[in-house]
């Protein structure tokens, strides 16, 4: 059975201001993966609030909402994101011991902060919406039931010095993502948001299924098949985070064999017959 702490519920009334730690590399809050080794948290800032740090870990700041000025390595940029669902991300990726200053320019500016250990030293990199091309996976397959927008921020191909892989998925209402189910050796985190507070979806982890709501986080154990579906009427967003394993970096995933046929555009699956005109 799936351990209950694979699902880390978010607060139903929204995250408070300040830093909320969800997972930690020291494993002081156990998850479904004992060696997850990822610090993941959310930082909700007041307007004009300023935060400066020089952290010993590799760190990624992903803007979820709001306006902010960010200064690092002698560079200052202004970032804005009005919608997780309609706007691509901005992200700042920092090597260990790199100083960053963040100034919120709007109320409720919110960041996802991801960290993991890295012995290397490398220059920071800024990722802007114009740098990231959407990938509409699932188009033309099984009656478009798995059509979604995948936004890769960086992986081993584009950032080989990193010990992380990060991206986002916008899951369309009533449709699937991470489909067909797949698995990989590396642990992974999904953090969910919905287009309405009452929105929800379901996350498959092998034969176990958990109901996910706005603000929830799921920790995916290594080797566990996973797929997602959102309830009709609700768009579902999730930030996904993978950590490379020593000597075994993440370079892709393996589809569950019995469902691989859904990747063949010539096989659209069962279609109902004798429906009234105008119905799919």
Walk me through what this model shows:
This protein is mostly beta strands and 280 residues long. The protein has one domain (15-259): Jelly Rolls (Sandwich), CATH 2.60.120.10. Helix content is 0%, strand content 46%. The strands form three sheets. Strands 2, 3, 4, 5, 6, 7, 8, 9 and 10 form a nine-stranded antiparallel β-sheet that branches. Strands 1-18-15-20-13-12-11 form a seven-stranded antiparallel β-sheet, with no helix packed on it. The protein has a five-stranded antiparallel β-sheet with strand order 17-16-19-14-21, with no helix packed on it. The radius of gyration is 19 Å and the shape is globular.
By CATH, the superfamily comes out as Jelly Rolls
**What is the element string, with H for helices and E for strands?**
EEEEEEEEEEEEEEEEEEEEE
How far is the first residue's CA from the last residue's CA? 37 Å
Would you identify the regions where 5 or more consecutive residues have pLDDT less than 50?
none
The CATH architecture category equals Sandwich
User: What's the number of structural domains?
Assistant: 1
As a whole number of angstroms, the C-alpha radius of gyration is 19 Å
Mean pLDDT across the residues is 95
CATH first level: which class? Mainly Beta
Strand content: over 45%
């Amino acid at each position: 059975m799936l351990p209950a702490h694979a699902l880390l519920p978010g607060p139903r009334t929204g995250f408070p201001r300040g830093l909320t730690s969800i997972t930690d590399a020291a494993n002081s809050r156990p998850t479904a993966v004992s060696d997850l080794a990822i610090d993941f948290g959310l930082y909700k800032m007041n307007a004009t609030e300023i935060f400066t740090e020089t952290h010993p870990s590799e760190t990624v700041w992903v803007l979820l909402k709001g306006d902010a000025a960010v200064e690092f390595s002698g560079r200052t940029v202004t970032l804005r994101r009005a919608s997780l669902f309609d706007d691509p991300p901005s992200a700042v990726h920092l090597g260990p011991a790199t100083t960053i200053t963040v100034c919120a320019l709007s109320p409720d500016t919110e960041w996802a902060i991801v960290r993991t250990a890295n012995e290397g030293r490398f220059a920071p990199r800024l990722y802007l919406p114009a740098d990231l091309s959407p990938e509409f996976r699932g188009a033309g397959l099984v009656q478009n039931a798995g059509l979604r927008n995948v936004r890769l921020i960086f992986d081993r191909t584009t950032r080989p010095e990193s010990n992380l892989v990060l991206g986002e998925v916008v899951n369309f209402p009533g449709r699937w993502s991470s489909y067909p189910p797949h698995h990989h050796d590396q642990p992974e985190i999904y953090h969910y948001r919905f287009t309405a507070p009452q929105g929800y979806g379901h996350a498959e982890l092998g034969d176990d299924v958990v109901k996910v709501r706005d603000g929830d986080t799921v920790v995916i154990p290594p080797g566990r098949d996973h797929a997602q579906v959102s309830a009709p009427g609700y768009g579902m967003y999730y930030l996904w985070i993978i950590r490379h394993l020593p000597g075994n970096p993440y370079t892709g995933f393996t589809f569950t064999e019995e469902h691989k046929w859904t990747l063949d555009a010539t096989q659209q699956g069962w279609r109902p017959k004798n429906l009234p005109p105008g119905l799919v």
